[in-house]
């Protein structure tokens, strides 16, 4: 028996990370709507780190600006 993750295990992990990313974005958008982009970005980064979801800096910047400007944003695509 192998300890290597199977493709199905990897898909499950990716799905869980995508759900976590969605939750982080929803929470931050609801709590930080109208906050300065730096504050929003900090909260997004903290949430993604806690959820063990890797997100590029450019994605964090984009999401923070959109939450600041529009009160919502699309979640990052987890790969």
Structure explained in plain terms:
By secondary structure, this protein is mainly α. Helix content is 68%, strand content 0%. The chain is built from three helices and no strands. The protein has helices spanning 7-32, 37-50, 57-70. It is elongated and about 40 Å long.
Task: Detail the topology: elements first, then pairings.
Blueprint: H1 7-32, H2 37-50, H3 57-70
Helix pairs in contact: 1-2, 2-3
Compact summary:
This protein has three helices and no strands. With 79 residues, it is mostly helical.
Labels describing this entry:
single chain, 79 residues, mainly alpha
Overall pLDDT, averaged?
Answer: 89
> What is the chain-wise order of helices and strands?
HHH
- Estimate the helix proportion, in percent: 55-70%
Count helical runs. 3
The Rg value, from CA coordinates, equals 14 Å
Structural class, please?
Answer: mainly alpha
Sheet with most strands = none
Low-confidence stretches: none
Number of strands: 0
Shape: elongated
Strand composition percent: under 5%
Tell me the distance between the termini: 27 Å
């Amino acid at each position: 028996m192998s300890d290597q993750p199977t493709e199905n295990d990897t898909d499950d992990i990716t799905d869980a990370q995508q759900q976590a990313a969605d939750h982080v974005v929803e929470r931050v958008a609801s709590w930080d709507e109208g906050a300065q982009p730096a504050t929003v970005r900090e909260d997004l980064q903290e949430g993604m780190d806690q959820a063990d979801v890797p997100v590029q800096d450019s994605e964090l910047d984009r999401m923070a600006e959109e939450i600041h400007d529009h009160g919502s944003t699309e979640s990052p695509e987890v790969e």
